[in-house]
Amino acid sequence: MRSTSRLAWWGRLAMAAFTVQAANPALDEVSGVLPRLQPDARAALERRAAQWAEWNPGQRESFQQRMQAWDDLARGERDAIREGYLAWQALPASERASIAAAASRYQALPAGERLALRDTYEALDGSERRGWMLGPVLGSDYPALQPLLAQVPVEEHAALLTALRAMTAQQRRDLAVLVQRSSPQERERLRSELATLEPGGIAAWLWERLDR
């Protein structure tokens, strides 16, 4: 992805995070629900209820207007915003900081330039757009690594991304070569092995695999 496309994506992802945060409802009367919730969920709901209780009428009205605006969005648009927010939450703090800085630069651009960047982003292949949801570190390598990242089991997903982010850019390029020359069954084994590795063992594992 060119730098202009990356900037447009970063801006949209960061704004999606703030949109969803603003749309999460706080509840005023939850006493009947609380006993049935897990401790973490109960604590979160209590915090939201306390926040609602502290708001003045104007703040509550503003929140309700935002909620109505959220409800008025098409289902597909809400789903896309949620997906972007979850992708944002899954990123390391350092990458979120990079994205936030890029989003600020994006917002400072003239409206015409922002629109052009958005059009460039929308013109990308759907698979490439989804790849950039992995963030700036892995986004540029996604096309080459896509066969490895397709249909990752839920239990391996987080560990696999952690291992990939621990690699250097050259190591990810070497891994891409290995992925491209492997059969689908071999890719599954590669993925499972990589998901179990500690960062210190990645280089030796990669060299051993490349030498086979």
Please provide a written account of the structure:
The protein folds into two domains: 1-125, no CATH class; 141-212. 76% of the residues lie in helices and 0% in strands. It is built from 13 helices and no strands. Helix 1 packs across helix 6 (111-122) and helix 10 (154-166) packs across helix 12.
Tally of domains: 2
Q: What percentage of residues falls in helices of 4 or more residues?
A: over 70%
As a percent range, the share of strand residues is under 5%
- SSE arrangement, N to C: HHHHHHHHHHHHH
Calculate the mean pLDDT score and round it: 81
Question: What would the principal axes of the Cα set say about the shape?
Answer: globular
Describe the structure using short key phrases.
single chain; 2 domains
